[in-house]
């Protein structure tokens, strides 16, 4: 009885910690400008060889957790890959990496504890197989969730790109400089397309902090990983280099982006029929067969019963 109570208490504490970590991970930043400038200063002052362990042995429990995790074999590589994925998913808060990894570790520990509880009366081989399965699920499921977040973030950027590029061309046509135009577009689009507005605003802040515009756009391409943004960045850099009209080029590029968006929508509509085939075969056709055939079978059985009865 006491063991069961302790297990349920630990399970409830783990679930509560996971919920708190998720809420802290997706909570809006109170001062994104200050956070981004602090991140730029930190990346400028720290050498690349010690990037993954910067200040993790101090600065609060979250940094302490990252420091302890980096001491484990393969911990640095795991932290770097997770940090890269979080940046690609649009999560750049300083505590976001620690919260995600903390949730990952506690989720894995909860699965291992639950599997150990379920397999406590089985043989050692069965318990070992269950523990290995729980470890694999606990390690891969958060990564799958992170990949889904990256895909969702890139899809939102892709959907926002045509309208934002069109507005950028209109603003540039009024005579504003590129940095001022990007700032104005970010301010106008932050309530409609906050993801792309935040990316443009990050580029502006990096340029204002002293970074070259070419490097800032290259970092934008690496963060997003979208070919259309890569083409946009190359267009802006080449236009600034050769002094050509960027407003006209952006207008033509926005029309091309709208055409691509329409073609993607038509392709998705064309695939819908094939995707609906499997649910129809698995869920709808069996029910249809039951509805249409069962009454007839019951009638036949009833008639056979009447024919075979006593005369």
Chain-wise SSE layout:
Elements: H1 2-25, H2 32-45, H3 61-71, H4 75-88, H5 96-118, H6 124-173, H7 178-189, H8 194-208, H9 213-224, H10 227-242, H11 246-307
How would you sum up this structure, described in words?
With 311 residues, the chain is mainly alpha-helical. It is 81% helix and 0% strand. The protein has helices at residues 2-25, 32-45, 61-71, 75-88, 96-118, 124-173, 178-189, 194-208, 213-224, 227-242, 246-307. Helix 3 crosses helix 4 (75-88). Mean pLDDT is 77; it is low at 41-59.
Structural class: mainly alpha
Could you describe the largest sheet, including whether it forms a barrel?
none
Spans where pLDDT lies below 50 across 5 or more residues: 41-59
What percent of residues adopt helix (DSSP H or I)?
A: over 70%
Total helical elements? 11
Give the mean pLDDT.
77
Described by the principal axes of the CA atoms, the overall outline is: flat
How widely separated are the two ends? 65 Å
């Amino acid at each position: 009885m006491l063991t069961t109570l302790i297990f349920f208490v630990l399970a409830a504490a783990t679930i509560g910690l996971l919920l708190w970590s998720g809420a802290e991970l997706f909570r809006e930043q109170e001062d994104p400008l200050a956070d981004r400038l602090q991140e730029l200063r930190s990346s400028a002052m720290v050498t690349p060889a010690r990037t993954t362990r910067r200040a993790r042995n101090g600065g609060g429990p979250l940094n302490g957790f990252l420091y302890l995790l980096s001491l484990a074999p393969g911990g640095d590589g795991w932290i770097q890959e997770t940090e890269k994925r979080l940046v690609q998913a649009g999560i750049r808060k300083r505590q976001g990496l620690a919260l995600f990894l903390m949730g990952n570790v506690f989720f894995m520990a909860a699965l291992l504890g639950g599997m150990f509880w379920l397999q406590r009366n089985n043989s050692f081989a069965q318990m070992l197989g269950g523990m290995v399965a729980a470890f694999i699920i606990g390690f891969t499921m958060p990564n799958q969730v992170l990949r889904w977040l990256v895909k969702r973030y890139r899809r939102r950027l892709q959907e926002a790109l045509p309208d934002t590029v069109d507005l950028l061309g209109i603003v540039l046509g009024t005579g504003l400089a590129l940095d001022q135009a990007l700032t104005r577009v970010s301010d106008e689009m932050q309530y409609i397309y906050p993801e792309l507005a935040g990316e443009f605003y990050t580029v502006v802040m990096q340029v204002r902090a002293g970074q070259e515009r070419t490097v800032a756009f290259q970092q934008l391409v690496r963060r997003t990983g979208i070919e259309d943004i890569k083409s946009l960045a190359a267009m802006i850099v080449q236009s600034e280099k050769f002094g050509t009209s960027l407003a006209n080029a952006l207008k033509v590029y926005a029309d091309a982006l709208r055409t691509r968006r329409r073609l993607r929508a038509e392709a998705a509509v064309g695939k819908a029929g094939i995707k609906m085939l499997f649910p129809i075969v698995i869920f709808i056709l069996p029910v249809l067969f039951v509805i249409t055939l069962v009454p007839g079978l019951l009638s036949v059985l009833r008639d056979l019963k009447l024919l075979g009865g006593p005369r």
